[in-house]
Every structure is written in C-alpha cells, then in structure tokens.
Specification:
Elements (H helix, E strand, L loop, with lengths): L5 H4 L4 E6 L3 H5 L2 H8 L2 E5 L2 H8 L6 H9 L4 H26 L6 E5 L8 H15 L4 E6 L4 H10 L4 E6 L2 H20 L9 E6 L1 H17 L4 H10 L3 H17 L2 H7 L7 E5 L12 H4 L6 E5 L1 H10 L10 H10 L9 H34 L3
Parallel strand pairs: 1-2, 1-8, 2-3, 3-4, 4-5, 5-6, 6-7, 7-8
Helix pairs in contact: 4-17, 5-6, 7-8, 8-9, 9-12, 10-11, 12-16
Length: 381
C-alpha cells in the first residue's frame, strides 16, 4: 500500500485540518474516514465553503422546507442548516478532541463577515454560536481586524474557543497572540479554569504570493533593462508567503518564552498555535504542496482543502522545515524595500485584509440570495 504522507506530518508536531465541510461528506461517511484513517484532526469552514455546499444541492431541501413551514426567516433557515452540519462534524471529531487532550478535534464556524468591524456584534454572535451549537469542540472564527481583537479577548475570557482568521502580516499575528493572552489573563484573574480553552491564529499564505507575484509580473511586463534587476524581481516570486510565515513562527517562539505566557502555561494554558491557511497553490508552475512541505513544524496546524489533501497524501516531502531558511526569510522580506523591487509589504497586507473580508461577504450575500430563491421554489403556493 502506498504511503499516506499526511500521517507522517503528525510526528513533527503539526496537525492537519481540512478546509471544507458539506453535508454530503458527513452523510456519505467520507468525513469519518478522513478522520479515522487519514489523519484529519479538525475542520475549518467559511461563508464561501457553505455557499458552494448549499448551491444547487438537494440534500438540504427537506430542512429548508421544514424551516419554511416553521415560518423562519431566511437567515434563521441558513443557520439551522449550517449549525446542524457543524454539530455533526463536531460529533465525528469528538474522539480526536478527547484523545488529543482537547488540542485538536475542532470544527470552526465564522461569525457573519458583515460584522467584521463591529466589536460588540462580534462578541454577541460568538457567544450565541457557542451556546446554540452547544459543542465543546467548536471554534468560533473571528477576523483579525482592529475591531475583532477586543472580541477575541472577551470571547477567550468567557471560555469560547477562537480561531482568529484573515491574518496576513506578522504584526497582525503578534497582536492576535497578545489578545489571546489578555483573554486568558482576564479569565484566570476571575478564578476560572484556563486549561481547556484552545485557539489558533490563521495565517494566510497563497493570497500573499498571488498579490505580490502580480505586482512583480506587472513590473516585468513594462520591461526591465538590467538583467540583474530582472533577476532580483524574479527571485521574489512565490517566496514571500512562506518567508513571512517563518518569521511569524519566530515571533511565536518569542511570545511563548515571555514571562506572561509562562505564568499562564503554569496554570495549564494551551499555546495558541499558528494555523497555515489559504494553502492551495494557485500558480500551476509552483509545487501543489509547497505551502505544506515548507511549513511543517511543532505547535502548528495546516488547514488544507480537499485537492491539496489528496496531493499531499500522495507526494508531500515530509520534514521539519519551519525553522530552516529563517535567515534567508528575513533577508527576502527586507529585499522588498530594495528600490529595484519597491514593494510595500504593509500596503499589500492592508489590501489583502480588505479583500479577504470582501471575499467572505460576497459569497455570504450570494448564499442568502440563492437560499431566498430556493425558499420561493420550495414554499407551498
């Protein structure tokens, strides 16, 4: 039997989660097989995933009809569908949750992307989702926006597991880590247990390279007279996301060595693991598993879409690489400031965060519209 390389990754301290959830894979037994036999230790979801799951899929029709008969508004019908899927996935992953001492086995659901810049609304929805879904191994996804971080802090203080999403810059990751720490400190100061709370910081990858590669290609298309300058530009392509992630991991190490973290660890707190997200390779000239191979290491998670899961199981080159090439990573990021390259990474990260929220709002609104149409079709005349 061929080696499933996904199963090898765990020995290096990294967990593989899947970035996908549909009722089909729950009911067919595919999800259970992925969990029990292929090393999948968690699930992440987002509005774009749910839009694809619900669009044109008759598997949800009976529950939509039940919602219509109950007189539920569209948004509540939507929630009834996704909450049911999330609960089922949580139940399938419950054995992983127990066996890993509550480190893995989580299913993530995102608060509505329309409230990404509203702290109080985010807190209220995180609280409601956690209560209504009613599964210990639920993670609520909160965007790492300026308004999102106080919500993260409060949710952690209340004992809600949080997946902070849409992180692009190292600075945004560091801010997220300290929000987690402040939440734990607040909870501990209230005399509450902090040993059973988990959090991940979802650090996005391929979108960074897509953005920067496009900028490089635009410069090259204009024409570069100097061969040395052309070489500089080409040397950056497809390299920034992984370099950025390796630097973020170095910041993670500094944080867990701090006195504030050590004080929490002494009370049983779990580290907030860096989670590599957006790990499907968009450029066909790059390795289809490069965002897995290059970032395997201790205390990390990689959330992988189904296509990349199959590719990695087949031909990932597994090894502990999260701290290889660190010096080169710092140099590469610094080189972006070279006048010949002249890419402002802060501007790129701001663009990506704005685009990221929009990429969740658009499918969310599209999902509501398509659900409205389906409700009309299924409603009794």
């Amino acid at each position: 039997m061929a080696t499933n390389h996904l199963l090898e990754i765990k020995q290096y301290g990294q967990s593989i989660w899947m970035d996908n959830l549909t009722r089909d894979i729950i009911q067919s037994g595919e999800l259970r097989d992925l969990v029990e036999n292929q090393g999948i230790a968690g699930i992440t979801s987002n509005p774009a995933i749910f839009e694809k799951a619900l669009a044109g899929n008759v598997i949800y029709d009976a529950d939509i009809e039940a919602g219509v008969r109950a007189g539920l508004p569209t948004y509540k019908i939507y929630e009834s569908l996704i909450f049911a899927d999330i609960r089922s996935a949580c139940d399938i992953l419950r054995p992983v949750y127990e066996a890993s001492n509550k480190l893995d086995g989580y299913v993530s659901i995102e608060v509505p992307p329309t409230i990404a810049h509203d702290t109080q609304a985010t807190i209220a929805e995180a609280r409601r989702y956690f209560q209504e879904i009613d599964r210990e191994n639920l993670m609520v996804k909160i965007p790492g926006t300026e308004a999102g971080l106080p919500a993260v802090e409060q949710a952690i203080a209340e004992g809600i597991n949080v997946n902070i999403t849409l992180l692009f810059s190292v600075e945004s990751y560091v801010n997220t880590a300290w929000a987690y720490i402040r939440g734990l400190e607040k909870r501990a100061s209230d005399g509450k247990d902090i040993s059973e709370i988990a959090s991940v910081a979802s650090f996005f990858l391929s979108r960074i390279d897509n953005n920067i590669d496009a900028k490089i290609d635009a410069k090259l298309k204009k024409g570069v007279d100097d061969i040395a300058v052309e070489a500089k530009l080409k040397a950056v392509k497809g390299k920034v996301a992984i370099a950025n992630a390796k630097i973020a991991y170095q910041e993670y190490k500094k944080i867990i060595e701090s006195e504030r973290w050590q004080a929490l660890a002494a009370k049983g707190a779990k580290v907030q693991r860096l989670l590599w997200a957006s790990t499907s390779t968009k450029n066909p000239s790059y390795s289809d598993v490069m965002y897995v191979d290059e970032l395997i290491g201790k205390d990390t998670v990689n959330t992988v879409p189904p296509g990349t899961i199959k590719a990695c199981a087949d031909h990932c080159n597994v090894g502990d690489r999260i701290e290889t090439g660190t010096e080169e990573a710092y140099k590469l990021i610094e080189n972006l400031k070279d006048p010949d390259i002249n890419i402002n990474l802060d501007t790129v990260m701001d663009e990506l965060l704005a685009e990221g929220i929009d990429k969740f709002i658009q499918p969310f609104q599209s999902l509501m519209n398509s659900l409205e149409e389906k409700i009309k079709v299924l409603s009794p005349v």
